[in-house]
């Protein structure tokens, strides 16, 4: 991408490229039963920032120093968006968070029923690994593809996102400690961000030291993102967010503002973002500009 | 395995080896939240024939002609049992088949609640791909591991098992045709059998022609297995099966005996098994004895 475009333009253009690739990655011939593919596409096309896939692409470009890394990285970018989407479908289910709306639209099970929503989630989760395997056809070495499969299964699985969701669901209302909350956020949110950045970096040809620095960058960026989410749920604009605010308060969810206060939470977002960008600097990448720009954008976002 | 042991002994010993490997493949340090690992292990340890993992191991040995192929094939054997187990947990959910008992024990969600059951399924599905990635550490080439990841995602995903379950759930009671029923059984049951046999064969070093013959073998074996399941639900022994019989009739499920009659269904099992073993002969394997023995055993099983 040309460095003269703004961050907002970069994110918008990148999101469109990801959305096109996603539509191609989910075969049109999956027509039996037709409701299953429809349910998958309903949630995949429901929008969102496409932050995770964009981080895969931006990290690959940042390490390689060339935007031709995007072509190799796109199957993995699609994979992480499929994982993110499946997690939203399952999290919204009546047995889990029981949400009726997501991004201003009825949730998957409200439209297609619970059975199809569960299966649409299972289908997206499974297909994510198919998508990763396709990177081998775009010049990514077989060893790197296997490392990415292993990372994805770990960071999206029980030691990562699935474990975080279980800890969140099983936690007692109002009794979560700050350490537990950081654990839940790290697993539920940071781990997919860590996957996105490090998988892109692997495809770009990162050294082990670069992977280590980028893991810290992504972990702190993910936590900052989640704390900002907590803040926006409290004081954000419902129109911009596309969902009702104050839902955490109503559901008696323990959040950063609840535990440490609003001002302290804002300071935490700033501190985490600063530490994230320091780690990013330490990685010594060839073309890190978009990763810096994304970090800054996320800290100041209002939706 | 020594050829002097009986098929029943071979299956029982093999199942024990698989069960030990499965317990090791799901890390003991996954203790937070403790209910999640417990729920996963509850269903993983609930028994069953371990048919799919045993087919992975037997196929690897059959192609390679040496039982040392088991060591390389075990991570993939564990993976397919994790996939099978997750599919049972999700299929039993109230929104799906709404079953209270499985193998004589309360189903996962009856013990751990729906939320944990959904997450235990998601965790097992995700971890299956981690397990496949570990085969690369046991002498399986990186290219073969990627082919297996891709096969598993396809055959367990929307074009395979998940699509079959969706078609089954969405099918109208009493109005399924024979062609639709064969489609559902092929996706729900045969596809995981095809995966098991071909993944093992790939690890054993099979040629493309052998993979093709073994795909036909496994597809027909899987269909025979499913028709036999339909028959046993109608006329089997509840004690031996560990579940109530006549459940298909009560749920007005369309089965082979319903569509073509009991005697015709028995004839079909025999014909499919015969065609399966002919395809197996055509594969020209070095040591196919256990695959032949398993085929014969499945046709005559009473549970």
TrEMBL record, chains A, B:
Keywords: Isoprene biosynthesis, Magnesium, Metal-binding, Transferase. Its cofactor is Mg(2+). Gene3D superfamilies: Farnesyl Diphosphate Synthase (1.10.600.10). PROSITE patterns: POLYPRENYL_SYNTHASE_1, POLYPRENYL_SYNTHASE_2. The keyword Ribonucleoprotein does not apply. The keyword Transferase applies. It holds the Pfam family polyprenyl_synt. It comes from the Bacteria. Belongs to the FPP/GGPP synthase family. This is Polyprenyl synthetase family protein. It comes from Paenibacillus oenotherae.
């Amino acid at each position: 991408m040309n460095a003269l475009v703004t961050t907002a333009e970069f994110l918008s253009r990148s999101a469109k490229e990801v959305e096109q690739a996603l539509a191609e990655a989910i075969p049109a011939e999956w027509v039996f039963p037709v409701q299953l593919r429809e349910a998958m596409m309903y949630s995949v096309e429901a929008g969102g920032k496409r932050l995770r896939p964009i981080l895969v692409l931006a990290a690959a470009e940042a390490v390689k120093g060339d935007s031709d890394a995007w072509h190799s990285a796109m199957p993995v970018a699609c994979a992480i968006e499929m994982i993110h989407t499946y997690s939203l479908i399952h999290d919204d289910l009546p047995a889990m968070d029981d949400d009726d709306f997501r991004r201003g639209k009825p949730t998957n099970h409200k439209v297609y029923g619970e059975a199809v929503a569960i299966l649409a989630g299972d289908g997206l989760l499974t297909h994510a690994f198919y998508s990763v395997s396709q990177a081998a056809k775009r010049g990514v070495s077989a060893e790197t593809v296997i490392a990415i499969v292993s990372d994805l299964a770990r960071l999206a699985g029980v030691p990562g996102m699935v474990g975080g969701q279980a800890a969140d669901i099983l936690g007692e209302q109002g009794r979560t400690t700050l350490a537990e909350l950081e654990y839940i956020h790290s697993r539920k949110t940071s781990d997919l961000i860590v996957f996105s950045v490090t998988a892109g970096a692997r495809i770009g040809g990162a050294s082990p030291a670069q992977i280590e620095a980028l893991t810290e960058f992504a972990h702190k960026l993910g936590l900052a993102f989640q704390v900002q989410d907590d803040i926006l749920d409290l004081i954000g604009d419902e129109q911009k967010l596309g969902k009702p605010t104050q839902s955490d308060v109503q559901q008696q969810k323990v959040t950063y503002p609840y535990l440490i206060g609003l001002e302290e939470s804002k300071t935490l977002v700033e501190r985490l973002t600063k530490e994230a960008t320091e780690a990013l600097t330490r990685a010594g990448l060839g073309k890190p500009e978009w990763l810096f720009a994304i970090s800054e954008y996320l800290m100041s976002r209002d939706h």
